[in-house]
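Anyone able to model this chain together with zinc ion?
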Amino acid sequence: MSVNQCSVCGAIVPQYDTIHSVSEGHGDRLLCTACFNQKMARHAGLDDFAEVKFEPIQLSDANGAVHEFRFRSLLFGDKLSLEAFDATIEEQPSGYRFQILGDPLSDQFVLLGKLIEKMRRLLAVAHVREGDFGLQIVDETVRGRIESDGGEHSLGPCVVIDGRRVEWDELGRMLMPFEGWQFKLEVRDPSEEI
Ligand SMILES: [Zn+2]
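re: yes, here you go
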């Protein structure tokens, strides 16, 4: 996992634990989440806010594969965003990601409990499986995340389904058993449960 240095405290932190902050006078800076939250708490007048650091946990997906999740809390004014990152898979973009929003001054362990419940629910569902002709859609619903394919010139999309990266062309091929069927595409904020 790639590491980065916080431009305020100098800490070396993994990439998921950083945020780009753009402000007048400082330009674009890379901050660790702890420094970002301190800055935001001051700005929002939340003197009582104290960030809780949670230990990584391991959870199994629907196929029995174990994933290690690391957490970060990010303060957005009157909302605290608690996010879980799948640290098991190196290839980017891939891996599960989960997010929940809560009140920054409420008990952060209660928020963590809610996030873990959500993670268990979502990890229990497999949307795709390996078939004779590559990946196949298991049922009639696919949930996932839209990402950039990282191409140097193209900046095209790819998606992450069941924590694995699926190329745009591959998604198209997976839809062909449904040729002639209708579909409905909805996009939702990362914190919503779909
Ligand atoms: Zn820092």
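The chain has two domains: 3-123, 128-178.
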